[in-house]
Amino acid sequence: MMGADILVACLEREGVDTIFAYPGGASMEFHQALTRSKKIRTILPRHEQGGAFAAEGYARATGKAGVCMATSGPGATNLVTGIADAYMDSIPLVAITGQVPQHMIGKGGFQETDFFGLTLPIVKHSYLITDVNEIPRVIKEAFYIAQTGRAGPVVVDVPKNIQQTMTQPVFPKEVQIRGYNPAPKAGDLELNEIIGLIEKCERPVLYCGGGIISGNASEELRKLAEATKIPVTTTIMGCGAFPETDLLSLRWLGMHGTAYANWAVSGEFQHRQKVTDAMVKIKDGADLLLAFGVRFDDRVTGKVEKFCETGTIVHIDIDSSEHNKNRKVHLAIQSDIKYALARLNEMIKKRPIQKKFTRWHQQIAEWKTKAPLSYRVTDEVLKSQHMKDHMGGQADEVILPQMVIEMLYELTRGEAILTTGVGQHQMWAGQYYKFKFPRQFLTSAGLGAMGYGYPAALGAKVACPDKQVIDIDGDGSFLMNIQELATAHIEKIAAKAIILNNQHLGMVVQWEDRFYAGNRGHTYLGDPENMKQIYPDYVAMAKSFNVPGERVMFRHDLRAALQRMLDSNEPYVLDVITPYTEHVIPFIPAGKTVADMIY
Length: 599
Ligand SMILES: Cc1ncc(C[n+]2csc(CCOP(=O)(O)OP(=O)(O)O)c2C)c(N)n1
Ligand SMILES: [Mg+2]
Known about the structure:
Oligomer: single chain
Bound molecules: thiamine diphosphate, magnesium ion
Number of helices: 25
Number of strands: 20
Structural class: alpha/beta
């Protein structure tokens, strides 16, 4: 067999059913081989970044590695953002790239880029294949590494001459990698310590992250919370790991998380005007924080020393390099989270927790009543250019972005899979849709990559054709990968997009308003010569891709328009015009504390 056919046969053996691949000189041999595969659907994205994000969307929706492919040089470099995104959020991704022939490597040949070198800091592992006989082992290892332990991206770079070399392949049945233990297990002694801490504490909180989802441990988490009655907050990556409709749920925490989740973890303080003012505590936060499958990201902790300052912290993670990295903890346990939670549940079943935490539950209920997520038509909205230019001053017709998400939640009964771009719309999507199941909220969290939403929705829809998959996007973010509407139409992938179109880079505007006296530094996306026009015209663009779409400006049109979008069995763009003056709250400014929270 030829190298390229061997690689495709390897992918088939890994159970790959879909690959997002864009061809070029150094990878067309692979594409020729892909045309001969009866098992693999090759989807041609319209930009390699779209292909990488789509593969990630597929991976996030299924837990299986997503696969993308590009040619050498510019094709490969266009994958970089997707690879970095998968690295930051621990998503299994196998990125295969063509490389110039071996005898040209290092000579600066046409479309040569040292992709192995270029991606070193953003991969879990990588390979440059130098012998055709290595292909079967390398591909087997690539999938094994991407999908086991703490998942992540693996790059496989294949010089063109190797793709064209003939050999008799030997396909290994399994792989063993020296020094790599993908499933470490917590010891009973350590787990017993956790039970002891639960028995002793008064105000416990479970702080759970993407690790619960990638470790398929949601069921175990639910059982633990039920058995112990410990309230649960998740990170954005952990949305859906625990049903947000459950009474024990505190929703997500951090910079734009709920006030009550942040208070439950770090305590309630008098709001201070300046960071130099003293922090005056009103109510205590958690005295025990069970941090499971999280990495103490700064968007969660704010000023890290003040995060759960007075609590005992237990950190279970599969990757010991996360222990004591951002936050020193009291008990660090390296373990596969599903194993650890299942074992904890067994132990608790034998020896049930006596504590009821009644006072703590009362306190949390009080906090929930004091500061629920809420929004209203503010003075800023009423005085905005949007009201004058588009609404004719009718305040009751303005559509706030939060309303759109709330209505979508209602119309989809909370069952849709959402993807997002990055910005205010992303935060509102997380706040106003309540996630019930894992792999329901697919968002670029760690990297925060604009342009992620629509291609990720394509990948998720390919993986879950029977689900509504809806990209909640910003006008800026959507424009970054708008070309993927062509992929959606041609490949008949009915992923929907709602653009919360505020004509601005809203999240940056919010920071300008708060920290730069509202001075606009290149954050307006419309046409300054004609501000009354909505620019660009996304519906017309969608039409040019043969994708149906509609624009909504007035509140009385919103419900029916959302329903038309949901009823469509094609890809669809719903362009919803919203004011840019809204701010996402709660808001703990970067590096600040819960005492600085605006809510
Ligand atoms: C690729 C990329 N470039 C720049 C940024 C910085 N950034 C973060 S949010 C944001 C604004 C996004 O605007 P839009 O997509 O319209 O969303 P909105 O905040 O208006 O809802 C920008 C520019 C980013 N996150 N990603
Ligand atoms: Mg915007």
